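One chain shown below:
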Amino acid sequence: MNAHVSQGSWPVLVLNADFRPLSYYPLSLWSWQDAIKAVFLDRVNIVAHYDQAVHSPTLQMQLPSVVSLKSFVKPTTHPAFTRFNVFLRDRFACQYCGSPEDLTFDHIIPRSKGGQTTWENVVAACSPCNLRKGNLTPVQAKMFPRQHAFAPTVHQLHRNGRLFPPNYLHESWLDYLYWDTELDP
């Protein structure tokens, strides 16, 4: 199919079979090309569409803006330990000073002192705080995280993710998302 839209535009919101997004942060989005492929493979239902269409010599199809999976995908209960998920758990703020700038992650008990790279020992930290704390324990550095480090549930990460809505929300997505935001006129 040939379309007169730029690559990466016309993102498609992907819902599970229960009409909930697969993920809030990052928001579960596919390219319009992947969504159309899934339609033709009979893996999704089109829930809403854009006004934009794609054309082939024998077919015209409006681009989907929201699709739902035909088969329910059971959400994971234990989120992966990743740098991004640590930042999301900590709401993209340094756990020492609160800054959202230049985030890294800090081992509360330094690795050199036996600290592990686990949910319970890693927090988001801005570079200046991380450098200031260095290779010291919280007691030695007199720097204590604002919240206790913990292994979050998927629900907790989704809740935090809703605090940071994406820059782009198409009006057809709003019935399926739970941000307190309004579209710009």
